[in-house]
């Protein structure tokens, strides 16, 4: 049998919490392969998390288990879910992080986790006390319905995203939007952000414009990106995930 993979995505940065979760997982299944996707999600940033896992998780082999802990509502009455798609399992709080998974993957089963069944679990660290052991138990063949109630996928919390908003900013300062307009290479555009108007060129790739110049291109996500050649567009504009932004043909 192929070794099971569990991926980890959190906003813990380099804190001790990641190590604690890994210890719990390996105590149950020492043979599992743990993959850190990122622990550098901006603190409590649901939208960034949702976009990140949608873009990264589908690259993994079938039956990979994805454990996501970005959980500003931990300890509240928010629900937590196990989601089975056509190829993968996802575990985490039901707070909007599965928005793009529900929209873009074939969701086949959803279980609402019975968190009360996990005795002595902390109200503030369910990542270690509930999600980590659950992921590890699934990796050794436990059935997902043993951990809660099967529910309709409509339970999956969705995000209320305006048309024209920033979904993600990568480490290069490239701004990924949820805009899907079609433009032609070389076309002159205007980016509107917080009252600023920036003249840009629609390009196929970064080298189509001069170093330091703005450009708009269609990224690998299928959405439009606002970038700068060898510079940070996000820093130049002061952009933040979740902010409204517009891209228009130059009038």
TrEMBL record:
Domain spans labelled S-adenosyl-l-methionine hydroxide adenosyltransferase N-terminal: 6-148
Keyword rRNA-binding belongs to the record: no
Pfam assignment, any one: SAM_HAT_C
The keyword NAD belongs to this UniProt entry's keyword annotation: no
Entries under InterPro entries matching the protein: SAM_HAT_C (IPR046470), SAM_HAT_N (IPR046469), SAM_OH_AdoTrfase (IPR002747), SAM_OH_AdoTrfase_C_sf (IPR023227), SAM_OH_AdoTrfase_N_sf (IPR023228)
Domain S-adenosyl-l-methionine hydroxide adenosyltransferase C-terminal: 164-245
Keywords noted in UniProt: S-adenosyl-L-methionine
Protein family per UniProt: Belongs to the SAM hydrolase / SAM-dependent halogenase family.
Name of the protein described by the UniProt record: SAM-dependent chlorinase/fluorinase
Organism annotation: Aerophobetes bacterium
């Amino acid at each position: 049998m192929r070794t099971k993979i569990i991926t980890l995505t959190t906003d813990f940065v380099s804190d001790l919490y990641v190590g604690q979760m890994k210890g719990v997982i390996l105590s149950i299944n020492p043979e599992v392969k743990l993959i850190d996707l990122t622990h550098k999600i901006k603190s409590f940033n649901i939208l960034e998390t949702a976009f990140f896992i949608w873009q990264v998780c589908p690259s993994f082999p079938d039956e990979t288990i994805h454990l996501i802990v970005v959980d500003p509502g931990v300890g509240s009455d928010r629900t937590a879910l196990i989601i089975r798609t056509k190829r993968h399992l996802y575990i985490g709080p039901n707070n909007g992080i599965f928005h793009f998974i529900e929209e873009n993957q074939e969701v086949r089963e959803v279980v609402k986790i019975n968190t009360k069944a996990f005795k002595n679990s902390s109200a503030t660290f369910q990542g270690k006390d509930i999600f980590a052991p659950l992921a590890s138990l699934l990796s050794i063949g436990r059935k997902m319905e043993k951990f809660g109630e099967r529910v309709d996928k409509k339970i999956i919390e969705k995000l209320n995203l305006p048309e024209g908003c920033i979904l993600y900013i990568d480490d290069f300062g490239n701004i990924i939007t949820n805009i899907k307009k079609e433009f032609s290479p070389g076309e002159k555009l205007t980016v509107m952000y917080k009252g600023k108007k920036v003249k840009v060129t629609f390009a196929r790739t970064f080298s189509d414009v001069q170093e330091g110049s703005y450009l708009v291109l269609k990224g690998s996500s299928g959405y439009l990106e606002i970038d700068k050649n060898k510079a940070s567009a996000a820093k130049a504009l002061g952009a933040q995930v979740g902010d409204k932004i517009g891209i228009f043909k130059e009038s």
